[in-house]
Amino acid sequence: MEEEKKFSVLDRIKSFKYAFNGLRLFFANDHNGRVHLFAAIAAIALSFYLKLSNLEWIAILSVIAAVMVAEIINSAIEKLADVIYPDYHPKIKVVKDLAAAAVLIAAFLAIAVGAIVFIPKLLLRL
Ligand SMILES: Nc1ncnc2c1ncn2[C@@H]1O[C@H](COP(=O)(O)OP(=O)(O)OP(=O)(O)O)[C@@H](O)[C@H]1O
């Protein structure tokens, strides 16, 4: 059995460093990451403009996070698959399509929540 590692504050800080490096890689190098960053900034700006309630803010921030989490995991799976098997393989297709489906569900949820929260407020301003 693997020996249990002692708790170390330094190790925890290092884990944060690696996670922030992952975020930087996602937003700086990944095209989808840039699109998501832009969309999140636009949604947050619109939320300030429309003076959302606390619950509406929670809904919007939650779907932004859900989409980003799904996209980051999808991106990690794609990169891992490309390293393990760079050529075409029907099982890699299944793995990548499943990961993409997770993003699709999060994106549909974000569109639905965005429409429910934003459309009535925008119509009131017409
Ligand atoms: N090695 C492979 N074997 C089989 N099918 C693949 C393979 N690589 C990609 N595909 C198919 O192509 C689709 C797109 O894969 P890809 O890795 O290019 O994702 P993407 O979302 O287009 O990438 P990006 O995030 O870079 O825009 C996959 O969902 C899968 O159906």
Relevant terms:
126 residues; phospholipid biosynthesis; 84% helix; 4 helices; nucleotide-binding; Helix Hairpins; binds adenosine-5'-triphosphate; UDPK; globular; mainly alpha
Largest sheet: none
**Whole-number tally of structural domains:** 1
Number of helices: 4
Heteromolecules bound:
adenosine-5'-triphosphate
What does this structure look like?
By secondary structure, this protein is mostly helical. 84% of the residues lie in helices and 0% in strands. The chain has one domain (9-124): Helix Hairpins (Orthogonal Bundle). The protein starts with 8 loop residues before the first helix and ends with a helix. It binds adenosine-5'-triphosphate (ATP).
Outline the fold blueprint.
Blueprint: H1 9-29, H2 31-49, H3 54-84, H4 90-124
Helix pairs in contact: 1-2, 2-3, 3-4
The chain binds adenosine-5'-triphosphate.
Question: Brief overview, please?
Answer:
84% of the residues lie in helices and 0% in strands. It has helices spanning 9-29, 31-49, 54-84, 90-124.
